Amino acid sequence: MVTYLADTNIFVRLYIQDNSEQFNLSLQILNDCKRGKIKIIVLSEVVPEIEYVLRKVYKIDRKTIANHLLELIKTTYINIEKRDIWKEAIKVYSKNNLDIIDAVLFVESQNRKNEILSFDKDFRKIKN
């Protein structure tokens, strides 16, 4: 079985559907993965890039982005690095006005029982 590292644009095409050829190919790729024909790995670094492209390029709102990302994270047939961290971070991201990487930092600090060293005051306002 062939293993692929998935780039951001595979998922952006699925969410935006602005290029029918790439959308259909992305669907086919995910279906092949679901059937066990191929294996897909999503590196942890790809998740914030998806968020960035959807927010900055396509002007998608935070709640919609969070829903798309949670859908991806919950897809069990795709291997997503740090799945549990991302699942919690996306929940924090959706409820707070902070960057997605700050949400990851917050979740990691909770899990590791470490404090966050930052000048950013947003961390004090985070709602669990």
What would your notes on this structure say?
58% of the residues lie in helices and 9% in strands. The chain has 128 residues and is mainly alpha-helical. It has one domain (2-125): 3-Layer(aba) Sandwich (Rossmann fold). Helix 1 (8-16) crosses helix 3 (46-57) and helix 3 runs antiparallel to helix 4 (62-73). The longest helix has 15 residues, at 20-34. The model has no long low-confidence stretch (mean pLDDT 95).
What characteristics describe this protein?
3-stranded parallel sheet, Rossmann fold, globular, 128 residues, single chain, 6 helices, 3 strands, mainly alpha
How are the SSEs ordered, and which strands pair?
Layout (H helix, E strand, L loop, with lengths): L1 E4 L2 H9 L3 H15 L3 E5 L3 H12 L4 H12 L5 E2 L2 H13 L4 H13 L16
